[in-house]
Amino acid sequence: MHNLVILLAHGSTDESWSDTFKQFTHSARAKYPNTKLAYMELSTPSLSHAVESAVKDGYQSITILPLFLAKGKHLRHDIPKQLAVLKKKFAIEIDLLPPLGEQAELALAVELIIDRHIK
Amino acid sequence: MHNLVILLAHGSTDESWSDTFKQFTHSARAKYPNTKLAYMELSTPSLSHAVESAVKDGYQSITILPLFLAKGKHLRHDIPKQLAVLKKKFAIEIDLLPPLGEQAELALAVELIIDRHIK
Question: Which residue of A40, A109, B111, B116 lies most exposed, with the fewest beta carbons within 10 A?
Answer without folding.
Answer: B116
